[in-house]
TrEMBL record:
Residues 274-395 form the Thiolase C-terminal domain. Pfam families: Thiolase_C, Thiolase_N. Belongs to the thiolase-like superfamily. Thiolase family. It is an enzyme of class 2 (transferase). Keywords: Acyltransferase, Transferase. Residues 5-227 form the Thiolase N-terminal domain. Its EC number is 2.3.1.16. Gene3D superfamilies: 3.40.47.10. GO terms for molecular function: acetyl-CoA C-acyltransferase activity. This is Acetyl-CoA C-acyltransferase. It comes from Seongchinamella sediminis.
Length: 397
């Protein structure tokens, strides 16, 4: 089996998912075009050598439909010989895309592949694809597909995560992200040029003015959906509970965002550029669908067991901050100290362009391992219905 190494991991800034956001005027294809160009400039990559482009995209509708992995490479002027595949495992799609790219390289099917993802939530809103499992309650129950916020509230209830703990986690995420942005830690960012020649060069969703007191004043966001039958459905499957504690608000939930990411994966020695890290292992798990989001924690647990490692053997973790309770529970369950977990903030602060987030998190992890001269890191994200995916990497000196 060949070694799959990461030659580069880049991303756009995260733009606010509003028509006033810094990336809104760009189509997803136009956004990706700038990243494809930057990847070539940074690594000397000849696009004709790329054996596959695999991109995550959660809402494949409108501008993001029609296999955006393929049509974006054609839009960018890449050779027609480059294949493309678009995948959807919701919020873990970006991690799954990189894992698939690595598996293709390891199997010898291709020498060079690209993973990553794109989500322009200001142009293609979440749920714009009109999936029946998210609009028909009876059908959703049959398919065991619940909305993410309700799953997060159930996790908070099952694991005893309080509103105060969730708000403290969210405030810390904002503070860490603001510090990292100001200190220039996000070196994987590629500034994006708009049509008027101006640039979007920094993440826009961070709210450094956030305080615990301000968060405490916000109303729960998912109690109404719970009262419409979701709580009863979850409680029927968790008979020890008498009620679901609705603690999540707009302030301790992920911020919607626009963005894209690319990760260049190849067999070691294939390219002239210096590889940055080796992909050691990856996995996907499926946990309790009523919790929706706990898979990102279970994927880390399973990956550590698979590789016969403890959490103490891993220098840094980037775990999908899929609502505050998930991170509070994750650190507790996996015995990970706060100074090794999402050290530059998570998606509550930074923003969550769903299909792109996994690739963005991987780039952030690699940047920080290099900045601190550390070796080993795990990135993980929740999918939906309890699924989760994770990747273990090791830096190459």
């Amino acid at each position: 089996m060949k070694n799959a190494v990461i030659y580069d991991a880049i991303r756009s800034p995260r733009g606010r998912a509003k028509d006033t956001g810094g990336l809104h005027e760009l189509t997803p294809q136009a956004l990706l075009q700038q990243l494809y160009q930057a990847l070539g400039e940074r690594t000397g990559l000849d696009p004709a050598r790329v054996g596959d482009v695999i991109l995550g995209c959660a809402t494949q509708h409108g501008e993001q439909a029609g296999n955006i992995a393929k049509n974006s490479t054609l839009y960018a002027g890449w050779p027609a010989s480059v294949p493309g595949m678009t995948i959807n495992r919701y919020c873990s799609s970006g991690i799954d895309s990189v894992a698939l790219a690595a598996l293709k390289v390891q199997a010898g099917q291709v020498d060079t592949a690209i993973g990553g993802g794109v989500e322009m939530m200001s142009r293609v809103p979440m749920l714009a694809d009109d999936a029946r499992v998210f609009k028909d309650p009876a059908y959703a129950a049959r398919c065991q597909m619940l909305m993410m916020g309700n799953g997060a509230d159930l996790v908070a209830t099952l694991y005893g995560v309080s509103r105060e703990q969730a708000d403290a986690l969210a405030a810390s995420s904002q503070q860490r992200a603001a510090h990292a942005r100001e200190a220039g830690y996000f070196s994987s960012i590629v500034p994006i040029t708009r049509e008027d020649g101006s640039q979007c060069a920094q993440d826009e969703c961070i709210r450094p003015e956030t305080t615990v007191a301000g968060l405490a004043a916000m109303e729960p966001a998912f109690a109404k959906a719970g009262a419409m039958g979701v709580d009863d459905y979850q409680l029927a499957r968790h008979s020890a509970l008498s009620a679901v504690n609705h603690i999540h608000t707009a302030g301790n939930s992920p911020a919607m965002a626009d963005g894209a990411s690319l990760v260049l994966v190849a067999a070691e020695g294939t390219l002239d550029a210096r590889p940055r890290a080796r992909i050691v292992a990856s996995n996907t798990v499926a946990a309790d669908p009523t919790q929706v989001l706990s898979g990102c924690v279970e994927a880390v647990r399973a990956l550590l067991a698979q590789e016969k490692l403890s959490a103490a053997d891993v220098d840094l973790f980037e775990v999908h901050e899929a609502f505050a309770a998930i991170s509070v529970m994750g650190m507790r369950e996996l015995d990970i100290a706060e100074d090794r977990y999402n050290v530059n903030g998570g998606v509550i602060a930074l923003g969550h362009p769903m299909g792109a987030t996994g690739g963005m998190m991987l780039g952030t992890l690699l940047d920080e391992l290099e900045r601190r001269d550390l070796q080993r890191g795990i990135v993980s994200a929740a999918g939906a219905a309890g699924s989760g995916s994770a990747i273990l990497i090791e830096r190459l000196n």
